[in-house]
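Researcher: Here's the sequence for the chain we discussed earlier.
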Amino acid sequence: MRLILLTVAMMAVTACSGEAPSVNHPNNPNTATQENATKAAYKVIFGGTEVGNLTITNNGTMVSLDYGFSNNGRGASSQEVLLLSEAGLPINWTITGKTTFGNEVNERFEVVDGKATWRSAAGEGEEKADNAPLYIAQNPSPYAYYVYAKTVLDAGGAPYPALPAGQVTVNPLRELTLTSTEGTVSATLYAIGGIDLNPTYILLGSDEQFIGIVSPRFAILPDSLTGEDERLRALTATLNSERYENIAANVTHQYDHPVRINNVRIFDPLTLSLTAPQSVVVENDTITAIEPLQDQPGANEVFIEGNGGTLVAGLYDMHGHMGDNQALLNVMAGVTGVRDMGNENDVLSALIDKIDHGVLIGPKITKSGFIEGVSDYSAATGELAPSKEDALALVRDYADKGYWQIKIYNSMNGEWVPDIAQEAHRLGLRVAGHVPAFYRADQMIEAGYDELTHINQIMLGWVLEPDEDTRTLFRITGMKRFVDLDLNSEKAQHTLDLMVKHNIAHDPTAVIHEYAMTGRNGITNNAVLDYIDHMPISVQRSAKSAMLNVADEKEDKAYRVAFDKILAALALMHERGILLVPGTDMGGAFYLHRELELFAQIGMTAAEALKRGSYDMAQYLGHEKRGAIKVGNAADFFLIPGDPTQNLKAIKTISMVATQGKFYFPTEVYPEFGIQPFTGIPDITEPR
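Model: Thanks. This is the structure I predict for it:
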């Protein structure tokens, strides 16, 4: 998932109020009557491509918003009405529409007689409004960030109390001169915090009017300023990097002496068991000794007390799309390896370079070269190939740049795949990807795929008609047909036979299917139950919002049965020896933990799932010095208090991570994101 776009797109709000609306709307304080209504149009841009529009109609007593975008065959749309008090606070907010994956939005907020009430996909709430709190909508259009920013600035700029919880911060970062088609525009770039895990960047004019929203991949700008899109996205990428560079500088521990982690059991992936308590010695980035327990620190070593906990080799998320924030949070969750499955090439290269040089915290990243065909549904991320010759040129370019594999996407012409795969294999690249629209997994296997991505991409071929288009959201909603699917049918068994015959690996991303197909409004999603109470309020609310629109009880049951059928299909694959690789497509970190739990539900023991996420993936990617804790291997592991071979959930409470010669204590990092830490910091003794 592209988190910036998903976070912005899945926000849309509603409200109504019996109180008198303001005649001083902050976007245009001089507008006071219906007759003076003004309308402004903005482009929604993702990765440099225009994918939608935002229209703002301001009539002085209310603001009407029409928002929508479409990218990669899916998109959000909403119609929003916002009324403000004399102080500029929302007192009446309503929206109808749909989220990126089609969940219906019908959110309401209002203030009546000093009481604020709200209803959203996450549930209902009410609270006294005596201190004029600022309501943070669950699903607003991105314009909501302007409402938040203007409220805080008008109140003096100090952190402002928010509903349902928390407080909003607004900090100026850069004074800019923008070049528009109508001349130059003076603007200030602000960071809005306290709402999401990461700040949101907003542009305001010299009189604090709304100009736009920008991020490294996503922007909303007026037509006259779309020429500044690339520069502004680059600026926010720099600001993100500076933030994460500062965090890295403050929380990275790199020791000049040998480091001994004492009194720890080691997970052995070959025996699928824990050792007796031992002592692990690390020098630089290598494990140099595994010794008996020590009673006290040595004279010239850093001594970390493990308290009888467990050391586990670093995990891998085999389906990521990395950015600065995801890179850091993966490491804190013990995910020290990520296979990136599609990204802007320059963004990914810069990220890897900064991780390698210790400027940013991040996992070891394995690169997949994204190749997409050209259609009305083409993904904005990655490289487009209008012809087979263009696709072959991209394969050669990815090989020259040291990529591990190529990834083929939905709009690719399936007739080109045999030649693409042949060229990739000639150059030492593997071939993975989606099943292109109007083709089946069987055809891609025979064309030269080494790995199939997403379980729905395989199973849809067993239930769809040849002319049904999987480039749209139908590749998700069409899974309802799995209800009547016979896994012993000739179609299903033929695909499994081919996978076994050709040694095809599979990246099912089971967790994103669980999130989509079993998530329901008002109920915390199963994928996040074990840690959601530690997250900021906005993340907690999102976890109670369905990804898909579920029309009625019949459809509810169909999606749930379909997910059970997915798990049954994966169990069959596992039984037949097909290599299932754990990936999330949701950013990794805690979601990777859940992916491994789902692997345990399809027939693996907890220890086997742990081995699959660490040792097996290191072997699969050719990382010979990773995946197991033994002398001579890289010091790439994490420390937990429990026994993950008995309870896999133990991997969610991590007190220390070691990777690339550095040590991290998540408890020092999580407050930067509004996350409540899970454990204490181990006792550490350093030489005097």
